[in-house]
Amino acid sequence: MYIKDGIAHAGEAAPELEVASARYVGNLQMVVAFSNGEERLLDAMELSDMPALAPLMDEGVLSGFSVDCGVLTWLGGEIDIAPEAVYQRSFEYPRPA
To answer: Could you list the residue range(s) of the whole structural domain that residue 44 is in?
Structure first.
């Protein structure tokens, strides 16, 4: 158990995770670099089950992202996704040799 911001949580505290950078690579996919040094591939189709994220199925919208305080955002901040959610819905992405 641990306490954060005055709230008791079960389990172990996880290190804070932030998006360090990202790049759009086409075909509704992005490579996202995290503060832990890991790069992962985010396929927007993995987000298609969430109606609030439906605009991200448009390549023009998805590629128009920004990173704001460690969070991926779109449409001037109208849409954002927590770094932990991006991490969980993304895939290992080995760096080219």
So the answer is: 18-92
69-81 pLDDT tens trace: 999 999 999 999 9
What confidence category does residue 94 fall into, taking pLDDT thresholds of 50, 70 and 90? confident
- Total number of domains in the chain: 1
Q: What is the pLDDT of residues 2-13, one digit of tens each?
A: 676 777 666 665
CATH classification at residue 45 = 3.30.2020.10
| Domain membership flag for residue 13 | no
Q: Is residue 44 assigned to a domain?
A: yes
Task: Tell how far CA 41 is from the center of its chain.
Answer: 10
Backbone torsions φ then ψ of 74, nearest 5 degrees: -140, 160
Residues 6+ apart with CB under 8 A from 50: none
Rounded CA-CA distance 10/5 in Å is 14
